[in-house]
Specification:
Elements lengths: L15 H4 L2 E4 L6 E2 L2 E2 L3 H10 L3 E6 L6 H10 L9 E3 H10 L7 E5 L2 H9 L3 E3 L8 E4 L9 H11 L4 E3 L5 E4 L2 E4 L1 H12 L4 E2 L5 H11 L4 E5 L2 H11 L2 E5 L6 H5 L9 E3 L13 E3 L2 E4 L2 E5 L4 E5 L3 H16 L9 H6 L3
Parallel strand pairs: 1-4, 1-13, 4-5, 6-7, 6-8, 8-9, 9-12, 13-14, 14-15
Antiparallel strand pairs: 2-3, 10-11, 16-17, 17-18, 18-19
Helix pairs in contact: 4-5, 4-8, 6-7, 8-9
Length: about 350
């Protein structure tokens, strides 16, 4: 992907599953939500795999081990092995191992996924700030993580122990809605200590490096639902991306995306892997995709036509991103998006 400013979603004459050798798929909001498969995910991934595309699952959620994630996906009807799962726990464990002595103790504030990843790198997980840790690592620990764990992290960080975070996602999708993520927990320790952690997860380079090292992908396509992690991570790694609209990103956020948050492709769900992508073309003062034409007025984005809603959204992206350039579009999009059901 070029680092020049993207002003419209791209088209593709080939199915994305044929144009790219590996799909680097986010999990929450893309493949499943609240433990249940998202509509069309299972069948779409099976078809992509049968056509020769490798599927790798890349998650900022450091709670579960790759084995546990693989088992869950297999139960959902998506046959997966542990080597196909890459977590932010693995990325942060590698980062720590490169900076502390071999076999060092690491204070863990999080779940089993972090402990397994640290042991894989020859590091020793410990539970207390009084265990003389060489590092503190913080990852998502689930809804039942005791408050006292944040205190242990704060005690060690305040003493000058290097602090690491698997990721800083402020929210995480659940079956009941949007819940606080690891980034919210990181804020607790930051407020208590005034310190800043080194972060490994998406959208930062350590996670992309971990993914490429483990998959060997040559033509990867990042598939995600979050602009500030999945899409920005693809931008930082200079690879293409597909945003699916089954997770946290809504129409207004997409239209207001700054350059680093603009995906290569936009589609409703994972069926987008199996098809080409329509071109967004200039049409007079606006942009056309499918049966829709979008233009940028003086105060708002305008949309005319009919057809598939996602085509209208693609056209609106072109109008919004073009007028925004290297900034963000501040035009009112409410009426235009309402025509599409957003």
């Amino acid at each position: 992907m070029s680092q020049s400013v993207r002003t419209r979603p791209e088209g593709s004459g080939r199915a994305l599953s044929e144009a790219y050798d590996t799909a680097l798929l986010d999990l929450d909001g893309v493949v499943y939500a609240g433990g249940h498969a998202i509509a069309h995910a299972v069948d779409s991934l099976a078809t992509a795999r049968s056509g020769g595309m490798r599927l790798a699952y890349v998650t900022n959620n450091a709670l579960r081990t790759p084995d546990a994630v693989a088992d869950h996906l297999t139960e959902l009807g998506i046959p997966t092995g542990a080597p196909d799962v890459i977590t932010s726990a693995q990325a942060v464990a590698r980062l720590i191992a490169e900076q502390v002595p071999a076999g060092a103790r690491v204070l863990v504030i999080g779940g089993e996924g972090l402990r397994v990843a640290l042991r894989e790198r020859g590091l020793e997980p410990v539970e207390s700030a009084d265990d003389d840790p060489a590092a503190v690592v913080q990852g998502f620990g689930g809804p039942d993580l005791p408050w006292g764990r944040f205190a242990e992290a704060s005690y060690a960080v305040a003493r000058g122990v290097p602090w690491y975070a698997s990721n800083t996602d402020l929210t995480i999708p659940s079956g009941r809605g949007i819940a606080p993520g690891n980034g919210a927990a990181v804020e607790v320790v930051r407020i208590a200590t005034g310190a800043e952690p080194q972060v490994a997860g998406k959208p930062l380079p350590p996670m992309h490096r971990e993914t490429i090292l483990r998959t060997g992908a040559e033509r990867p396509l990042v598939v995600g639902d979050r602009l500030d992690t999945d899409i920005e991570g693809a931008f930082n790694g200079e690879v293409d991306s597909l945003l699916v609209l089954t997770g946290v990103t809504d129409g207004p956020q997409l239209l207001a995306a700054p350059p680093q948050h603009r995906p290569t492709f936009v589609d409703a769900d994972l069926r987008g892997l199996l098809t080409g992508q329509p071109e967004v073309t200039e049409a007079g003062d606006g942009f056309r995709c499918g049966g829709w034409t979008a233009t940028a007025g003086t105060e708002r984005l305008e949309l005319e036509g009919d057809g598939e809603a996602v085509d209208g959204l693609r056209a609106l992206c072109a109008a919004a991103w073009t007028v925004a350039g290297e900034g963000v579009c501040e035009l009112d999009s409410g009426k235009a998006l309402a025509r599409l059901g957003w």
